[in-house]
UniProtKB/TrEMBL annotation:
Domain of life: Eukaryota
Gene this protein is translated from: Ptp61F
Location relative to the cell: Endomembrane system
Name listed for the protein in its UniProt record: protein-tyrosine-phosphatase
UniProt xrefs under Pfam families: Y_phosphatase (PF00102)
Upper lineage: Eukaryota, Metazoa, Ecdysozoa, Arthropoda, Hexapoda
Regions crossing the membrane: none
GO biological process: anatomical structure morphogenesis; negative regulation of ERK1 and ERK2 cascade; negative regulation of receptor signaling pathway via JAK-STAT; neuron development
Species annotation: Drosophila pseudoobscura pseudoobscura
One GO term describing the cellular component: endomembrane system
Comp. bias intervals (Basic residues): 541-561
């Protein structure tokens, strides 16, 4: 059943009422936009919704249970207990999802977070149990170099590539895929292995909506909304559509607000946008995360009142770009590490900043400008796909491969550490206490032994490299001499200027990581040696003072006698 049939064709009276409602909403929007009034308007709505939640004592106890905390993508986005979706099958009944309703508009949705790797089965079980016919995905799998949603569907056609979920006794098969300019439409065959029954589930995947941002234009969003409505998945005679982004509140809330307000204008000829938002927030916290998203909601409602009743807009079909395979999901996943040569010619990054410098230079080698601070917070830092993939691959190598293959470093000596802890106190040396010279000599011998223990691990930093006397670092010793020419410096960095094959990116990263680890060890040992020298000097000064006191007392006693 299509949404057009459910709502019915607009009559002339309805069109006139819609125009009046559009004018009223547009006037409110323009008045609030003056000065800083829009941000204040958004803040007032948020505070009003928060007060209402406290007055009605909305709780989130289930999400805060120890066994359920790991099932939440974000710590501060939890489903209300009174509207949360309860899973019926399996050992876990919790999922971060709420049933959001607006009865005046005959609308109900399930708003949820982007599935985690451990909650993919719970997600599809919810789709099956709630009899949902469609999934509206409003985010990409990876945004701003961060994974926002786990790939929860098979990205290849055919039953042999189906996603098997034995924990919930379900399988998901990709049957068909169509790619449009701003979204992808997929058809899945969802099968219950217990009953062998199958059901068709559609997915509308909006791919041009940035995180914490807004779509490129209201027209593009309205075309997406029209496609969703025409499928019939928002009708009240089917299960609620599952709407999700990453947290399930920002972009998801924007979609629901625009859709509900447009339905209310069509049915009743009027709509209070802020009131509708507060009603929706009574089912799931934090819907619409930014003032810009609320701004876009008003723009889309104003444009939608006009264009969703315009036959020329409704009849203009979106062209299909591709319908063979699901290539978009594959494009969002990080590709294999491409060959790197330019970054290997760069000088060795000093100290612990080398890892970050490698990541930034991976982007610089592609012509991108990278800020030294807040590199992960700026969406414009790595704008090209190649630069983004390089950044991701470098990050994964550092965290996954390099750490496992690092050569073991010698352990820090335990005896000097205990000696240093004792020497931190100002009360270690009592100048009034008379000790024998033999005891003082024994203390000096202890310090000398501890000093010799540290000398066994003595390292010499040269040009950012660290040499050790342990067998584990023989390859680093080979690079510890000061180079007499630039060619030797290149050789120390893994570059053979004689035309030989340069070191691989993996080995170069391992070597630099190992060098940084050893530089950190050198710093620790230098500090320990410095403290031991101070301890030695203090002991000698204390011993000298006691000896002088003994001589003075002996001299006075001789005079008295």
């Amino acid at each position: 059943m299509s949404e057009q049939k459910t709502s019915g064709s607009p009559s002339p009276t309805t069109t006139k009422d819609n125009a009046a409602a559009r004018q009223k909403i547009e006037t409110e929007y323009n008045n609030k936009k003056t000065g800083s009034g829009w941000h204040r308007f958004y803040k007032e709505i948020s505070e009003k919704c928060d007060r209402g939640a406290k007055e009605q004592q909305f709780s989130t106890l289930e999400s805060e249970r120890s066994q359920n905390r790991g099932l939440n993508r974000y710590r501060d986005v939890n489903p209300y207990d009174h509207s949360r979706i309860v899973l019926k099958r399996g050992s876990v009944d919790y999922i971060n999802a709420n049933l959001v309703k607006l009865e005046r508009a005959d609308r109900q949705y399930i708003l949820t977070q982007g599935p985690l790797e451990d909650t993919v089965g719970h997600f599809w079980l919810m789709v099956w149990e709630q009899k949902s016919s469609a999934i509206l995905m409003l985010n990409k799998l990876m945004e701003k170099k961060q994974i926002k949603c786990h790939l929860y569907w098979p990205n290849q056609l055919g039953p042999e590539k189906a996603l098997k979920l034995p924990n919930v006794q379900l399988t998901v098969e990709l049957v068909r895929c169509e790619t449009y300019q701003n979204f992808v439409r997929r058809w899945f065959k969802l099968t219950d292995l217990e009953t062998q029954k199958s059901r068709e589930v559609m997915q509308f995947h909006y791919i041009t909506w940035p995180d914490f941002g807004i779509p490129s234009s209201p027209d593009a969003f309205l075309k997406f909304l029209q496609q969703v409505r025409d499928s019939g998945c928002l009708s009240n005679d089917v299960g609620p559509a599952v709407v999700h982004c990453s947290a399930g509140i920002g972009r998801s809330g924007t979609f629901c607000l625009v859709d509900c307000c447009l339905v209310l204008v069509d049915k009743h000829g009027e709509c209070n946008v802020s009131q509708v938002l507060c009603e929706l927030r009574s089912y799931r916290m934090g819907l619409i995360q930014t003032s810009d998203q609320l701004d876009f909601s008003y723009q889309a409602i104003i444009e939608g009142i006009k264009k969703l009743n315009d036959p020329s807009f409704l009849d203009a079909k979106e062209p299909i770009i591709g319908n063979e395979t699901d290539t978009h999901a594959q494009d969002e996943l990080p590709p294999p590490l491409p060959p790197r040569t330019h970054s290997l010619n760069l000088p060795l990054a000093p100290n612990a900043g080398g890892v970050l410098s490698l990541n930034m230079r991976a982007a610089q080698s592609n012509g991108e400008e990278v800020a030294a601070e807040n590199i992960g917070d700026k969406p414009s830092v790595l704008s090209s796909k190649d630069a983004l993939n390089n950044f991701i691959n470098q990050h994964e190598i550092i965290n996954a491969e390099v750490a496992d293959s690092l050569r073991p470093l010698p352990p820090l000596p335990s005896r000097p550490l205990r000696s240093l802890q004792e020497s931190d106190s100002d009360e270690d040396y009592d100048l009034d206490e008379e000790d024998d010279d033999d005891d003082d000599d024994e203390e000096d011998d202890d310090v000398d032994e501890e000093y010799e223990t540290i000398n066994e691990l003595d390292v010499e930093p040269v040009n950012g490299n660290v040499s050790t006397t342990t067998p584990q670092a023989d390859d680093v010793n080979a690079n510890s001499e000061k180079p007499a020419a630039p060619a030797e410096q290149h050789k120390a960095n893994g570059i053979d200027t004689a035309g030989q094959t340069p070191a691989s990116p993996e080995n170069e990263l391992k070597r630099r990581k190992r060098t940084e680890q050893q530089a950190h060890l050198q710093k620790q040992i230098n500090n320990m040696k410095r403290k031991l020298r101070e301890s030695e000097d203090n002991q000698k000064a204390s011993k000298k003072g006691r000896r002088d006191n003994n001589r003075n007392r002996s001299h006075k006693m001789c005079k008295k006698s």
